Amino acid sequence: MASEKNLVIGMFGFGVVGEGLYKILKQTPSLKASIKKVCIKDTKKKRNAPAEIFTSEKDDILLDPEINVIVEVINDSKAGYEIVTTALKNGKDVVSASKKMLSEHLAELIELQESTGRSLLYEASSCASIPVIRNLEEYYDNDLLHSIKAIVNGSTNFILTKMFEEHLNFKEALLLAQQLGFAESDPKLDIEGYDAAHKWVLLLAHSYGIITSIDNMLFNGITQINELDAKVAQSRGLSIKLVGQAKKLYNGKIASFLLPQFVEQTDQLYFVKNEYNGVVIESGFSDKQFFYGKGAGSFPTASAVLSDIGALRYGYRYEYKKKNQHTAAQLSNDFHLRVFISFEDLGNIPKDEFESIEEWHSGNERSYLIGTIPFTALYKKDWWKTNNTSLILMPNNIVEHTELIELKKMSLSLAGLEI
Ligand code: HSE
Fold first, then answer.
1. Domain with 361 in it: what CATH number?
2. How confident is the model at residue 409 (pLDDT cuts 50, 70, 90)?
3. Which atom of ligand 1 sits closest to the CA of residue 152?
4. Residue 199 catalytic?
5. Which of 62, 94, 125 is the last residue of a domain?
6. Residue 136 — very low, low, confident or very high, per pLDDT cuts 50/70/90?
């Protein structure tokens, strides 16, 4: 067994997660890890910890040779990047929960871990309390991962649950998510899908070794979901969730996106409510597995930081094995999506782009259609996000080339034509 290291922690940030970690560490003396200093911006603010551990001078931590672990749990991704990179270069191991910062600089941070030989762990950054990153790294460390789909943002899941099950309006539900400490300080990051997309970048790296950015991702949040969408969901026994999805296609490449979806009751994600997150993984031999746990909040997030700190005692590092495989996976644009689209004016919908339309309902104020459309008709396009249009993926949403031929045959034979 590797020898245990004594951990002396310097922490940046004492907000929801930082204070949670401080309290948890006091209750886990067996870990042999102690917080020596905490760097904060506002030293005048009253804190629930002895005044002598606080400093506003970052070098009190970054240049202290006794401190060997940096915990970075601040809100400012620019400052977070400076702290994390300096700490690694100064020979310290780092635990971070800053998903935005990590996803924006992932390639560089991976290189920096290699060149410094130090470790950067970030289990808390995706799905908070659910140990998904380390499982993807260690347990699913081969190329047999068929698919992963997940609810990765607690606030939006909380808001959707409160709106559809307790009939709160959007504003009330968001306010509650903010009061409970789930939402980002800029809640746009949650409701417009950015936070989830940042997390999806990290999960893609550990699922398939794909290092990308949110600029190359098809994603959206929940702000366009409206009453008609909710009624359609209810009438069909479906729920609406914001879901990230990646799947290995027949061509060996990976389909990936993060969008609102109609979720069926037979899907494990249907029962993931409030601030909980859930991850469904399908792999070659183990078949389907489901991870479930709190995806936001002080102690659930701090528990993942604590677990990373524990792993550092044994010198644990991510190996990014899938990224380093000789046939690294690639993202694909060559597939179709089965979508529900509700809209006010058909003139704003490019009907000709659809491969097939299976349902069509027109109403006085809003209408909707369900159909199959190429991924490329949505990717880097914004017609489906503007003019009060709402796009929600249908169940069984990925349609591949071979299935498309079947679909075409079906719609032509329905129309009484031969092919
Ligand atoms: N705002 C984030 C969420 C916090 O709601 O999921 C946890 O990352």
1. 3.30.70
2. low
3. 6
4. yes
5. 125
6. very high
Alpha carbon of 133 to ligand 1 centroid (Å): 16
> Does the pLDDT value for residue 123 go beyond 90?
yes
Tell me if 240 is assigned to some domain.
no
pLDDT (mean) for 288-294: 97
194 lines ligand 1 (CB under 6 A): no
Q: Distance (Å, rounded) from C-alpha 53 to C-alpha 12? A: 12
Which candidate in 92, 100, 199, 248 is catalytic?
199
Helix (H, G, I), strand (E, B) or coil at 265: coil
Q: Which atom in ligand 1 lies closest to the alpha carbon of residue 153?
A: 6
Distance 140 CA to ligand 1 centre (A): 25
| CA–CA dist 83, 173 (Å, integer) | 34
User: Rounded to whole angstroms, how far apart are CA atoms 102 and 73?
Assistant: 12
Q: Which two tokens stand for residue 298?
A: 């002080």
Structure tokens at 146: 């068929």
**Domain that residue 68 falls in:** 7-125
- Report if residue 395 sits inside a domain: yes
Cβ 183 under 6 angstroms from ligand 1: yes
Assess whether the C-beta atom of 192 lies below 6 angstroms from ligand 1. Answer: no
Please state, in angstroms and rounded to a whole number, the distance separating the CA atoms of residues 261 and 347. Answer: 24
Q: How far is the CA of 125 from the centre of ligand 1 (A)?
A: 9
Q: What is the CATH number of the domain that holds 111?
A: 3.40.50.720
Number of domains in the chain: 2
- Domain boundary (74, 106, 125) is at 125
Q: Tokens representing 153?
A: 């943002």
How far apart are the CA of 293 and the centre of ligand 1, in A?
13
pLDDT for residue 337 is more than 50: yes
